[in-house]
């Protein structure tokens, strides 16, 4: 069990053992009796870590900072745990923003110089609201033209405004194709990206000429969804998706939990739920499945079994892709 897994499971014994084996400075034998409350347990963990590190992660021994030792001691935590600790706000409130947007007019979510992006619009509105620049931290970065039915981000703000006021005022300032559907004050240890346990994406394929849905779908001839579904189900399970990503990450193994295919009047709807996705992964998965469907082949199985073998990487259009939801464990909010 990794330290991160132990943290989520409120496994005090494993965490204390981890520190005993990997750190010169020991944690107390009992952090907190939390009765399964992972949020409270994480907060107790960070309170304990505060006694060992300063805010930037530098090891502190007897009140003195030891930068050399700090580099070695950071290894005692998984990378994500370090990120949790370093990004936990001091003297600020952390807010979760639940978002919905149409991505047609934007160059993706991530802020980019001289380009219109979802993050850029949100941060501009927040700066106008708070009076100074702020960084938001999204659960994921959607590509240009991709939409979100329900996206999530967090932001740290020193403000007397209530969550409802923040939501209301931001929606006044944002373009009509970006909406804050909820704003919630969350514990400082909540992280929109690192706390996400999974995501669900939807791909819409339109089978008629309809200019009012052209920017929300992919246009294609009628599909027999009963024949397409077993092709897509080949992705379900734990696989190396190296050949279904734009660039090769260090870790390309992902778990797909569920794939549903259905007909909705003149559209074919594909829902894919997984723990995480690589860049362009969903669009490449669907492109490969459609190719196998039209050619009556099975290239998916061989591609998943031979992830290191280079193959063409076709993409379906971004216009049909929608982030449906980001999944989290329940936390206590206000």
What would a concise description of this structure say?
The protein is α+β, with helices and mostly antiparallel strands and 334 residues long. The chain has helices at residues 3-8, 12-22, 38-50, 67-73, 79-87, 118-130, 163-173, 225-232, 281-295, 300-305; strands spanning 60-61, 64-65, 93-101, 136-138, 147-157, 178-186, 198-206, 218-219, 237-240, 253-264, 267-274, 321-327. A hairpin with a 2-residue loop joins strand 1 and strand 2.
Could you give the topology of this structure?
Layout: H1 3-8, H2 12-22, H3 38-50, E1 60-61, E2 64-65, H4 67-73, H5 79-87, E3 93-101, H6 118-130, E4 136-138, E5 147-157, H7 163-173, E6 178-186, E7 198-206, E8 218-219, H8 225-232, E9 237-240, E10 253-264, E11 267-274, H9 281-295, H10 300-305, E12 321-327
Parallel strand pairs: 5-12, 7-8
Antiparallel strand pairs: 1-2, 3-5, 3-6, 4-5, 7-11, 7-12, 9-10, 10-11
Instruction: Supply the CATH superfamily name of the largest domain.
Output: Pseudouridine synthase I, catalytic domain, C-terminal subdomain
- The number of helices is 10
Number of individual domains? 3
The overall pLDDT, averaged over residues, is 82
Poorly predicted ranges: 67-78
Number of strands: 12
CATH domain class of the largest domain? Alpha Beta
Which structural class matches the secondary elements? alpha+beta
């Amino acid at each position: 069990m990794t330290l991160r897994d132990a943290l989520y499971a409120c496994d005090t014994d494993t965490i204390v053992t981890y520190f005993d084996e990997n750190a010169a400075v020991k944690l107390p034998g009992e952090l907190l009796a939390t009765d399964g409350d992972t949020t409270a347990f994480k907060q107790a963990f960070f309170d304990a870590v505060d006694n060992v590190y300063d805010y930037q992660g530098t090891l502190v021994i007897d009140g003195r900072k030891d930068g050399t030792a700090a580099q070695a001691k950071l290894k005692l935590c998984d990378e994500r745990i370090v990120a949790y600790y370093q990004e936990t706000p001091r003297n600020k409130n952390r807010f979760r923003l639940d978002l919905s947007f149409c991505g047609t007019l934007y160059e993706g979510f991530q802020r980019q110089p001289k380009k219109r992006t979802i993050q850029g619009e949100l941060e501009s509105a927040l700066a106008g609201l708070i009076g100074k620049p702020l960084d938001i931290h999204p659960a994921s970065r959607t590509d240009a033209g991709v939409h979100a039915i329900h996206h999530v981000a967090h932001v740290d703000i020193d403000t007397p405004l209530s969550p409802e006021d923040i939501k209301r005022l931001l929606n006044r300032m944002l373009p009509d194709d970006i909406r804050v559907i909820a704003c919630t004050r969350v514990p400082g240890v909540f992280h929109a990206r690192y706390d996400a346990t999974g995501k669900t994406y939807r791909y819409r394929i339109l089978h008629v000429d309809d200019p009012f849905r052209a920017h929300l779908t992919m246009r294609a001839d009628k599909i027999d969804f009963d024949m397409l579904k077993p092709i897509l189900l080949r992705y379900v399970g734990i696989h190396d998706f190296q050949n279904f990503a734009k660039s090769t990450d260090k870790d390309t193994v992902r778990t797909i939990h569920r794939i549903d295919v259905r007909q909705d009047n003149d559209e074919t709807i594909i829902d894919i739920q997984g723990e995480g996705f690589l860049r362009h992964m969903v669009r490449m998965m669907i492109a490969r499945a459609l190719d196998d469907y039209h050619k009556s082949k099975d290239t998916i199985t061989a591609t998943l079994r031979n992830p290191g073998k280079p193959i063409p990487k076709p993409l379906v259009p971004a216009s049909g892709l929608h982030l449906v939801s980001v999944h989290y464990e329940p936390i206590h909010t206000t």
